[in-house]
Amino acid sequence: MSVPSITPIRWCDDGHLELLDQRALPDRHLTLDVTSADGAAEAIRAMVVRGAPAIGITAAYGVVLAALKQRGSDWQPGVEAAITILAASRPTAVNLFWALERMHQVIAIHRHEEVAPVTALLEAARTIHRQDLDDNLTMGELGADLISREAPCAVMTHCNTGALATGGHGTALGVIRSAWSRGLITHVHANETRPWLQGARLTAWELDQEGIPVTLAVDSAASLLMAQGKVGWLIVGADRIAANGDVANKIGTLALAVQARYFGVKVMVVAPSSTFDLEVASGDAIPIETRDARELTHQGERVVAPEKINIYNPVFDVTPASLIDAIVCERGVIEHPDHAGVVRMIETCRGT
Ligand code: MRU
């Protein structure tokens, strides 16, 4: 399986991070050089880089940037402070906190050293980055195997879960890529994904680049497409999966899953084990990010809502496990997810 050449996150050997600015896609390809942990946190907050695994990878490199700036033996407080700043950048995707915890473990191992352990931290960040790509390729095959149980079909996806959102290949979009290459998918329906338009600007662009047939539609066309029998699987990613299998993902996923159940469309969630949060018993306890009112009141510079109107702009919602047919992660598939299935799978993934 060839990996798409899109590179949202690149560590440069002179000691800085290069991010593809996803705010400018698809019409402009701009990159942003990030040289500090503060800069990495701001890039995550401002959505230069977005998507749960990509946020975690960027934060890990952000810790390396903090370590590079430390001089002398009292390096640890500066790096810990950077971790606190990075952790405050976005609240919902647990991959951010998972990656920072991995970096924290490296700091703990090297805490008595005289200089900041830059080499060890960089190796840890690179491992997180590389491992995410490997996991995506594995999940791609596992998800494609599920689709192969029945005849080739068209699928629907929401938001962007592709190379742009991950270490490469993608989670839900990775399954779509793998299944397409195996002849299991006839067409992809990409939802626009209001208000930030990840589906229109990023997913449609990624698929189009690879010649995978894609049709873009407004989010509210999804139920009509399902009613017309045009969708076999709804395939989405996740930002955090609770211990009982409830899934936080891009706003609109809950409505899609309800519609899918009504119309007999199967629902697949694709996420690496770094997206699971066993500390959270159910989706009710997952923090839901709300973003700037301007995402609704403006289209670019144009004002599209009355001035000073009340705005509610949650950017994630929670889909109950009961509406999900399968969660695919790197060590296997949880069919009809529940607490027992999730815990068993995560213990297998983490070797406990
Ligand atoms: O707000 P975003 O663009 O970071 O939201 C992204 C999503 O909701 C994705 O579906 C999720 O992070 C999975 S990405 C592999």
UniProtKB/TrEMBL annotation:
Q: What SUPFAM superfamilies has UniProt attached to this entry?
A: NagB/RpiA/CoA transferase-like
User: Has keyword Transcription regulation?
Assistant: no
Keywords attached to this Swiss-Prot or TrEMBL record, sorted alphabetically, are:
Amino-acid biosynthesis, Isomerase, Methionine biosynthesis
Where, in this chain's numbering, is substrate bound? R50, G51, A52, R90, Q198, N249, K250
InterPro entries from the xrefs?
A: IF-2B-related, IF-M1Pi, IF_2B-like_C, Initiation_fac_2B_a/b/d, M1Pi_N, NagB/RpiA_transferase-like
* Pathway assigned to this chain's UniProt record: Amino-acid biosynthesis; L-methionine biosynthesis via salvage pathway; L-methionine from S-methyl-5-thio-alpha-D-ribose 1-phosphate: step 1/6
- The species is Litchfieldella anticariensis (strain DSM 16096 / CECT 5854 / CIP 108499 / LMG 22089 / FP35) (Halomonas anticariensis)
One biological process term from GO is: L-methionine salvage from methylthioadenosine
Q: What is this protein called?
A: Methylthioribose-1-phosphate isomerase
From the UniProt record, list the reaction(s) this protein catalyses.
5-deoxy-alpha-D-ribose 1-phosphate = 5-deoxy-D-ribulose 1-phosphate; 5-(methylsulfanyl)-alpha-D-ribose 1-phosphate = 5-(methylsulfanyl)-D-ribulose 1-phosphate
Name of the encoding gene: mtnA
The molecular function terms in GO held by this entry are: S-methyl-5-thioribose-1-phosphate isomerase activity
What's the Enzyme Commission number for this chain? Answer: 5.3.1.23
Record-annotated site: Transition state stabilizer = C159
- Family statement: Belongs to the EIF-2B alpha/beta/delta subunits family. MtnA subfamily.
Active-site residues are D239
What does it do?
Catalyzes the interconversion of methylthioribose-1-phosphate (MTR-1-P) into methylthioribulose-1-phosphate (MTRu-1-P). Also catalyzes the interconversion of 5-deoxyribose 1-phosphate and 5-deoxyribulose 1-phosphate. Part of a bifunctional DHAP-shunt salvage pathway for SAM by-products.
